[in-house]
Every structure is written in C-alpha cells, then in structure tokens.
Amino acid sequence: MNIPKELLKDQSLYSHALYFDPINQQRMLTGDGHFHFNKFDNVPGVQAFEDGSFEITYFAPGAKTVQVRGIGGSMPNTYDMKPVEEMPGYFSCVISDVCPGFHYIEFLVDGVNAIHNQLPIGYGCSYAINFVDIPDPEFEYGFLKDVPHGTIHMELYYSKITGRWRNCWVYTPPTYNQNPEKRYPVWYVQHGGGENEFGWIWQGKMNYIMDNMLAEGLCEEMIVVMNCGYSFIQDEKGQFILEKPSDVFAYDCVPMIDERYRTKAQKEYRAVSGLSFGSYHAKTTVLDHLDIFSSLGIFSGGVGYTTKTGNGGPASFSEFDYSEVFKDAETFNKNLKLLYVGYGQQEAGLVAANGKQADEWVAKGYNVVHQTFPGYHEWNVWRRCAFNMAKLLFKW
Fold it and tell me: Residues 54, 134: contact at Cβ < 8 Å?
C-alpha cells in the first residue's frame, strides 16, 4: 500500500456531523475541582500512514484497559491499546491488518463501551458510533477536492401518512443557482437499517462523490435526496409503529421536492436506490409506484420480486408480488429504465442469492446492470455502488 501524503490530510476523512474542522481540546477535571481545557494538538485521535496502517490514540486517565474493535467484516478483530509512557492518561495502538476505507469502530474502557470524542461520530448500528476513514487511493471520489461544490439543504416536511414532521437532506449541483431556468432529474438514496438520513452525507460522502463526478463529466447533473427510511406513526399508547415507507416516499416526499425544487417531474427522471434494508424500501417504493419512478438501485440487498415464495424482503413486514413486472424483458423494460444491482464480493449470502438471478436478467435483455466490488456489507462497497449507478442514470 502506498497512500499519497496529500490524501492523508484530506478533510473529508476527519469531518463529521459534530464538527467539520477538528476541535483539538480536551476538557479535564483537575485537582482543584475545576474543569480546564487542555490542548492536545499534537495527539490526534487517529493518524494514518503511507503504508496503510493507522494509529489510534485514546485519552482515558485512570483506566486499566482500553480496547478498540471493528464492526464489520473488513475489521473483525479487537485490539488492546497500551499506555503511552510519555503521555500519562493516553493509550494507543497501531493497526495494520485492515484494508483502507471506512470502518465503524467501538471502544471498551475497562470493559464499558465508550465514545472517542476526538474521532468522527455517526449514527450506525442503531446508536452513536465512532468511525475512521483510511484513505483509499483506488477510490478518490469521496475526497474533498478543489472543484465546484454543490449545496446540501435541510428540508422539513409534514407527512399526512404518519402524522409527523420529517427531515431529509437535499443535494443540488454546483450549477443549480447559476441556471435558474434549468430543471433537474432527482435521485432518492436510502440509508440502511440502524442508520438514518445523515448516513449518505457523513459516512457515504455522497456530496463529494457527486461534486467530483460532475467536475469530470462522469454523470448527469441531478438533485439527490437523502430521506429518512423510518416511517413511524405514534399510536395512542405512545408507541411507534412502522408505516408503509413506499407511500410516504411517493405521496409525501416526492410532491414536496417537486414543489420546492426545479425538478423534471416525470417518472423517467426519478430514481430510487438504497443500501441493505434501504434497498428493500427502494424496491417496494419503485415497484409499488411505477407511475412515479423509472429506475431502481439495490445495494447489498435482495433482488427477489416476491415474498410469497420466500425470496424477497421480510414477509413479516410487507408481502409483495412483482412477478408480473419481471415476467419478460419487454414488460420489464417498458416499466424500468434501469435496475442496478451491486454488492460486495465478500457478502457471501448476497453473492449466492443475487448473482445468478441478476446475470439471467442481463442475458435475457432486461435493463439490468449487475456489478460487484471487493468488500463486505459496509460503506466501502456502497460508495462504489452509488458512483457506478450515478454514471448510468438519466442518460436517456
């Protein structure tokens, strides 16, 4: 591994929802009973090296043991951190046996799960969790480069279906405000289970991917909507029940986006994709509403088109049968401009379940693209899926 020095310092690797520039201060309780701010500019929480290894440093004064462990196949191990003799209260370890890219990580301080406040924090695995992003010189589209940048908007809208306010993030391309007469296609991208609408920004780097692709002319200009996949309604007891997400998408979110943004409001110019459980949301949204959407992306999800035979999404949540849409290439291609299927080569279950079916569709002339990438059920794969699907969208 040979990582260029300029990539090691890229701000996209260290920014997250809590801060964009690192805040290099640690609040400490000192002997006089007061809190003081202690600068530790020279003690970064993570430091990556040109050979692909990286050092984690954790401040835990008084702790007996500190461990760091990965969440996911590309970082499956737990590592013991050692006290740093010249820096009392600090523990560190160098990790050299994982691939570059994105990794969720957890810390155990005397056996108790703890957050590292010097590392990026996201929402994943259904809770606040740290992550590290080790520069991947083979995929630079997620880096913050000196190119024209789009804008991310926060949109609040009321759902008539759930009876609750919802939030989504909307990316508009760099030219959006420069060309007030131009209209744009819309790509809706869904997060996975245990994550939320922040994921495609801070973990997925979607805005940087779009900026860099547009700068190189690799994709069409488009609006990207990052919506929340949890469509909960609150019952009389205060409990939350998951409502049908496809209808929330079609009847609440799409009209709001078409009203507030200059969109091409025809089905040919709307696409939905999702990762993991979000791919289930994307599939049911598109196939339930073929009058609204024309393209579908399944990232690390099942390609089954019916739950009645047990090869689709979780039947306990929603039973569906889209076999009529998939009955032959002519019918399919009339309804869908694109079905993109992508997943990691180390996702053994998905490789076995999806690969054969997707390849059969391709061979029979369906508008299907099937791609795999080195990696597990992680953001390293989903970033590449997004990049490759974006290259195909709306070029008709």
Answer: yes
